[in-house]
Amino acid sequence: MADKKDPQQVKHDFWKKLADSPFVMLGLNDGQHSEPLTAQLDKDQVDTIYFFIGKDNRAAKGGAAMMQFVSKGHDFFACLSGTAKLDNDPAMIDKLWNKQVEAWFPEGKSDPNLALLRFDIGTAEMWEADVSLSGKLKMLFGGTIKPQEAGTHEMVATTSENTPA
User: Fold this and answer.
1) In whole angstroms, what is the distance from residue 60 CA to residue 145 CA?
2) pLDDT for the residue numbered 112
3) Which residues form a coiled coil (predicted)?
4) Which CATH class is domain 7-156?
5) Where are the domains of the chain?
6) Is residue 82 within 8 Å of residue 22, measured between CB atoms?
7) Where residue 146 falls among pLDDT bands split at 50, 70, 90?
């Protein structure tokens, strides 16, 4: 039987996996499709993820939003709801700026189309696949995997690693 992880560990795993592969799908709750964006993480921020976008990006208008994440190893999944809004703080732009962002904005930090989108997480639902040995054998040879063999699922009001779920 797989041991149920502590919610704090699941939150820690989320931030670690997102830092390792910062690619997400983000969309406003306006009926339009989500689109791929690269998360910019600031360890000094709790429950906040930033994205460099073009001012003409459909998410630039802000509002209620959803973000989906699948880890590089396909062993961690998250769906986060929250609010997106432009936050063009020059100090934050300087802090998060990197070579990958520069590739998208050839005029650098002064590019007239540059915008910094801030996504404040309201709630999150996370799934961590940690299939037990018996569960892996059942997957190989057929059989029903019991919930206690499948991994961990958490619904949290904050992704802060220092705050109880």
Assistant:
1) 43
2) 94
3) none
4) mainly beta
5) 7-156
6) no
7) low
